[in-house]
Amino acid sequence: MASASLQFFAFILALFGVFGDITATLLPNWKVNADVGSNIITAITQMQGLWMDCTWYSTGMFSCTLKYSVLSLPVYIQAARTTMVLSCILSAFGICITTVGMKCTKLGGDTDSKSNACFAGGVCFILAGIFGLVPTSWYTREIIASFLDQTIPESSKHEPGGAVYTGFISAGFLLIAGVIFCTSCFKKQQGAWIYPPKQHHFPSTEQESDAGYNLKDYV
């Protein structure tokens, strides 16, 4: 019962991780630059994401521009696009697989099949967490390096936006969920290896018949 509750808790964490992963991939505020200037009324907030760049004016106007050209983008943005999409796909696969392998569901067949499915789902979650952690870390490093560069003007410097923090938290949720799923299955298999089923040996009938035959010869 405790293992089933732990798997259900990991499944909830994985759901939060999947939703956060998709949200972070689509949000345009990976980089944020607030240019207030001399007049707060005409303040402008510029946001840059993986797929579009948006500008928000304090007057209430909001405009976005899609990034159509992939080759013109920096390498870290191209890598972030690829890895975040892979993270979303793997986490979605993990949700489907663990739904079959969890103990609280009636899918997946026997206990061994459910255990293997649960382990495979946990591996998907771990890979999704790694794929989500790499682009957010790389993107944050580029933002910090650009912010500390003295040759770049202040108006061109950015800070990490909400999408980066959402990506970090989602990757952590996916990693924790994957470790819980894999550990629960591993403990069960390890117990089976340490305590193998006892085998009962019964005397063969051939030896008894042979013994009886020899006794008859001497009578």
CATH class of one domain: Mainly Alpha
* Beta strands, count: 5
Stated plainly, the CATH topology of one domain is called Butyryl-CoA Dehydrogenase, subunit A, domain 3
Show unreliable segments.
189-195, 204-209
Distance between the termini: 65 Å
How many helical elements? 5
| Strand-pairing-aware structural class | alpha+beta
Query: What overall geometry do the principal axes of the alpha carbons give?
Result: elongated
Radius of gyration: 29 Å
- Topology pattern, helix = H, strand = E: HEEEEHHEHH
Give a short account of the largest sheet.
5 strands, antiparallel
Q: Average pLDDT across residues? A: 81
Strand order of the largest sheet: 4-3-2-1-5
Q: Per CATH, which architecture of one domain? A: Up-down Bundle
Instruction: Give the helix level as a range of percent.
Output: 55-70%
Proportion of strand residues = 5-15%
Structure, described:
Helices cover 63% and strands 11% of the residues. By secondary structure, it is α+β, with helices and mostly antiparallel strands. It has a domain at 4-27 and 73-194: Butyryl-CoA Dehydrogenase, subunit A, domain 3 (Up-down Bundle), CATH 1.20.140. Helix 1 (2-26) packs antiparallel against helix 4, helix 2 (75-101) packs antiparallel against helix 3 and helix 3 (111-148) packs antiparallel against helix 4 (162-194). The radius of gyration is 29 Å and the shape is elongated. The model is unreliable at 189-195 and 204-209 (pLDDT under 50).
